[in-house]
Amino acid sequence: MSLLKGTRVTWLGHATVLVQLPSGVNLLIDPFIEHNPKYPKGFALPEKIDYVLLTHAHMDHTADAVPVATKYGSTLIAMVELAGYMAKKGVASTVGFNLGGTVELPGVAVTMVEAKHSSSLEDGGQNLYMGEPAGLVLTIEDGPVLYHAGDTTVFRDMELIRELYAPEVAMLPIGGHYTMGPKEAALAVRYLQPQVILPIHWGTFPPLKGTPQALAQLLNDPKSVAMAAPGESLPD
User: Fold this and answer.
1) CB neighbours of 56 closer than 8 A, spacing ≥ 6?
2) 133 DSSP assignment
3) Going by C-beta distance under 8 Å and a sequence separation of 6 or more, which residues neighbour residue 222?
4) pLDDT tens digits for range 14-70
5) Edge-first strand listing for the sheet containing 102-105
6) Cβ distance 77 to 95 under 8 Å?
7) What 3-state DSSP class applies to 154?
8) Would the pTM count as exceeding 0.90?
9) Are 154 and 138 in contact (CB under 8 A)?
10) Are 187 and 156 in contact (CB under 8 A)?
């Protein structure tokens, strides 16, 4: 039996990840498309995006949230303050929740977990607080458990994420500067003990210097690091 059990996980550059369930439900995490220099040229999103999931409010994670949700009629799911803001910006269907909460969707439960970062966005020349940053655990029915860490540094309570949810796939930022780099991500891997690591949030902008190769060199099992290019899916 394959690890993903028919679920498709596609990295679209930076922290944008498309998750397609065997049932046909599609989820897009942290959509950063139009101005994302690493978004794969010519990549077309599927005909339907059922849910848009946001880890936090920074522009490089939310820039295309309203356009995507509006075009596809998606339900947007995020921290309660951020979901409320997106509703005011025209997203017709939103679900706001908070750390420790779980939203039950068809075929998948989405749980919001802690992240160590910040969360704000600029509107009308002002920086607006948008609640706490978060990671997201996707527990897929008859499938794998996926963990998108959002933007974060390593923190010891990642051990609680392992104990509570046992993610098999961990999508971890490794670029450094704004998030953890390879050294910190290697410790996060030790805390989480996933089977597969999908590096995200690297190489998009000059300060993000961490690489998957640097992470792999720090791990006892370097083959666990997926060397995916934007637009590529994890092997099933």
Assistant:
1) 62, 79, 82, 115, 117, 118, 119, 130, 132, 133, 134, 150, 151
2) -
3) 216
4) 999 999 999 999 999 999 999 999 999 999 999 999 999 999 999 999 999 999 999
5) 102-105, 108-114, 134-140, 145-148, 169-173, 196-200
6) yes
7) coil
8) yes
9) no
10) no
